Automatic annotation (TrEMBL):
Keyword Iron-sulfur: no
PANTHER family membership: GLUCOSE-6-PHOSPHATE ISOMERASE
EC class: isomerase
Name of the protein this chain belongs to: Glucose-6-phosphate isomerase
InterPro entries reported for this sequence: G6P_Isomerase (IPR001672), Phosphoglucose_isomerase_CS (IPR018189), SIS_dom_sf (IPR046348), SIS_PGI_1 (IPR035476), SIS_PGI_2 (IPR035482)
CDD domains in the record: SIS_PGI_1, SIS_PGI_2
UniProt keyword list: Cytoplasm, Gluconeogenesis, Glycolysis, Isomerase
Subcellular localization(s) per the UniProt record: Cytoplasm
Superkingdom per UniProt: Bacteria
Active site (record annotation): E304 (proton donor), H333, K447
Similarity remark: Belongs to the GPI family.
Pfam family, one: PGI
GO cellular component: cytosol
Amino acid sequence: MKRFEDASWRESMRIRFDYNNMMSDMIGEEYGISKEQILALQPKIKAAIEALKEKRKAGKTEWRDLPYTQADVVKDILATAEAIKNRFESFVVLGIGGSALGPIAVHQALNHLHYNELPREKRNGCPRFYVVDNIDPERMRALFDIIDVKSTAFNVITKSGSTSETMAQFLIVRDMLKEAVGDEYREHIIATTDAEKGNLIRIAREEGFKTFYIPAGVGGRFSELSPVGLLPAAVCGIDIEELLAGAAYMDELCSKDDVFENPAYMAAVLQYIAMKQGKNISVMMPYADSLKYMADWYAQLWAESLGKKFDVEGREVYVGQTPVKALGVTDQHSQIQLYTEGPFDKVITFIKVENFRSQVDIPKGYEDMPAVSFLGGHTLGQLLHAEQMATEYALYKAKRMNRTIILPEVNAFTVGQLLYLLEVETAFAGELLNINAFDQPGVEEGKNATYALMGRPGYEEKKAELEGRPKKREEYII
Ligand SMILES: O=P(O)(O)OC[C@H]1O[C@](O)(CO)[C@@H](O)[C@@H]1O
């Protein structure tokens, strides 16, 4: 029996959402949100709940059902991961955006913070793990300096099957592999992509790569709980069944229609009201190095989903909230000054971990110097908690909206909950804002311009358009 099958263990691992410091009875009428404001939104909330239910029923939000629909996929992933473990020294993800940020965040959360530096037996026999989420040539070359392609498996991940960055990475790797291992290169490449659309699936089928599919109703940034995230996680020894069980548990917690009992809905409603009050920035500040890259993953989720323009009776309206990544306590010493005394334009979301997996005692010393010796006898975890509480207090005192997501500890179950919570919050915020949270039209212009500049057939007109833009003036370059 797995531990997540035990109801009392699950309950003990429940993530909680503390929104005290968003509320006017805590930070003051002028600065916070009142219960009455939330109640006044009930018709809108009800409509948003119905809209999300409809979408789920119509299969448009398949990401919501990933915890339940992948029994066979999980089996396949576990078998594939085992084969990779037995054969390869390194495992490299090629991808960008939603095809990279989730695998990075989950790996950082659930594996040793210096995973790649550990000897293999301390990695439970798992391969070293890299994610190439950029196309910087120096970074690519640096990777090839430390891996041996002959003993490396590459997981090409692209939902659209056509992203230039990922396909360029793929072409480079395929060429190197062919050179190094000849026809066997096929056995080194696993493609994770849409089952029908895009170029990668065609290539994968023609060349006989092992493939995993991203369901149609799962967009890139909502895909971490699909094979996009599950295969890399399983290869690195993460319990993906527990991850999915955590997501299913959060789905249950987010199934209530009463916003006061539904953490994802409440989180979205508060952000919605905050946005209406000019809080255009959403800072995510985990107080745990293991969750540092959750803020990166969340940044894409929140920005691409909610940053939209639309038309209201011929007038353009712009919505969204700029996500900012921060890390406690590190950024207390770089950003907190701005958050406590700068403009009232932010909501700060702390992520607090109650129990750390490691404890480090601070030894006693310099008893004759009380300003130093007070630290001795505590643990680093206690210091971290005190600093989180102190920062929360400082923000509260400065009447700045802040909220805290509390994880009893960081494990696959709580990380599954966290991912799912933030996904539902984002989707619900999209409904409240009346926008499509699942597209990203604003990314297309840049993508098309890249195609044109790189000479992709069919983009000749775009190229002419680009060439027709005003020439840059030397006088403005100094
Ligand atoms: O998985 P794909 O299709 O390669 O897309 C990568 C990323 O590019 C975007 O389409 C645009 O940035 C993201 O939404 C997506 O996660």
